[in-house]
Amino acid sequence: MWSSTFLLLTAATYTAAAGYCSVNTLATNTTWMQFTKEPVPLEYGFEDKFKSIYCCVKGYRSIQWFKDGVAYPWSAGVSSFILYPEAANQTLYSQRAARADSGNYTCRMSNETHSETHTVRLEIQEKPSDEPKTMFISKDQWVEEGMDLRLYCEALIGRSYLADARSDLRWMKVWPNGTEGDLLITQTEIKTKRDDVEDIIGSYLDFGRVAARDYGTYACVVHSNDLVSRSYVTVHYKYGGTSMLDWSGDSDVPWKALVLGTVAGALFIASLLMLHKRCTPRLLLALRQARARTSTAAHRARVLEKEFDVLVCWTPVDAELVRGALLPTLTLKYKYRVHATQLSTQPDHWYTEIMSETARCRSVLVVMSPAQYTPQHLLVAFRQLAALPQPPVVVLLQDLPNLKREAKEVGERACSLLRRSRLVAWRHVHDRAFWTQLRLHLPLPPRAQQVKSETTDNKNSRSGSLTALV
Ligand SMILES: *[C@@H]1O[C@H](CO)[C@@H](O)[C@H](O)[C@H]1NC(C)=O
Ligand SMILES: *[C@@H]1O[C@H](CO)[C@@H](O)[C@H](O)[C@H]1NC(C)=O
Ligand SMILES: *[C@@H]1O[C@H](CO)[C@@H](O)[C@H](O)[C@H]1NC(C)=O
Ligand SMILES: *[C@@H]1O[C@H](CO)[C@@H](O)[C@H](O)[C@H]1NC(C)=O
Ligand SMILES: *[C@@H]1O[C@H](CO)[C@@H](O)[C@H](O)[C@H]1NC(C)=O
Hints:
This protein has 470 residues and is an alpha/beta fold. The chain has 12 helices and 24 strands.
């Protein structure tokens, strides 16, 4: 009787220990050595209770474990944890954990050529407490549109003993206005629990393929009785970098034809196209280009007076998008002469940072992620931008929250602040409407011949002065 109970117990233990690494694994095809799920760096257990820790990997040849630098197997004084070989050495467990088992457990997995380590910090506690303890939250992510993505959050909570208190963990979307809301219907949550410690709960936030609406900040909200803890992850846009080749065939051709036509013809086509709202910005742009072609020499000289057409400013979170997509498109496709500068994340000194660069540039373009700021910070940012002598063009990577309430608190009108900037919502690097709108707000770049003739002029004058010297 006793022995069969013992057998049942050990059997249950073994399935508990073996199961963890085989569920909720990452969907990958590749065979090289890698983690098969998010590696959790912090573990909690309770005195005299069952506890297991894991290193879920695949493609390895061997795994070795160390506790605070001491290699497995351990003497009783070091740790009561033992390997569970049926799980291919990915799991360690103890039937009755002790306070002395606390420490840093490191697994080192190796294949023929490489080895990698992962450390799990284990804390064995005397008894549960109410305070939620986050054990894992995914780091901020930079992902291309269309890539697969999931986030994970896991925490130790206190068991709920108050009738109306809740203990749970869930993902929420943080809207640009700072409020938390439900996830989108395309985003699914998969809740997890552990077989070793039932107070450890987790949740995957599965995006499937990332779409434009998925970018932004998410909060992992943990309730433990009446205590709440929040951790945040931001999903940033990353540029795929495959479009440089398409650009050689310039898409401006129809406009060249248009410009060649007479003014009357243009007006006729204009009235036709006006019916189509989307075409209006393109038409305005084309008309502006046509006008530029007939500009006076004085005007052309004024354009070339400044070294650059656009000063592009951004903060570190958007560096990838700006360097990968915006700058190459502006310079290579649309032939702007661009001067670029990175601003500090905090907007308090943007005015000074931008002013120090602006003398050589005809216009200012600021790329901004409103999601990284509180409404108060956003007001500071727009106040700094509004102080610039020339209204900047602001490319917004997410929706702008409603700033009216915050503005009222400091006695300002948000709309008058915003009116000093020209706002353009980022859509996609290939979205022609976005680029048309942006180019309408920026000054036209000088035409290629203009720049060339200027440099030849320079050369002539220089050689001229050289001749004079000789
Ligand atoms: C796995 O590989 C197949 C064929 O090589 C591919 O069609 C499929 O999309 C891959 N799946 C994942 C999850 O990468
Ligand atoms: C060993 O794993 C690394 C990745 O961790 C991989 O790049 C390498 O190709 C693997 N070597 C062999 C022989 O599989
Ligand atoms: C599992 O661990 C044991 C004891 O440390 C070791 O002898 C064995 O080689 C390991 N096996 C693998 C596949 O890592
Ligand atoms: C485990 O690692 C952490 C961080 O690296 C360190 O602060 C802590 O002292 C270590 N614990 C032990 C028992 O060595
Ligand atoms: C914040 O934005 C979301 C989505 O845009 C909206 O549903 C919500 O009502 C807004 N909350 C406030 C307080 O403005």
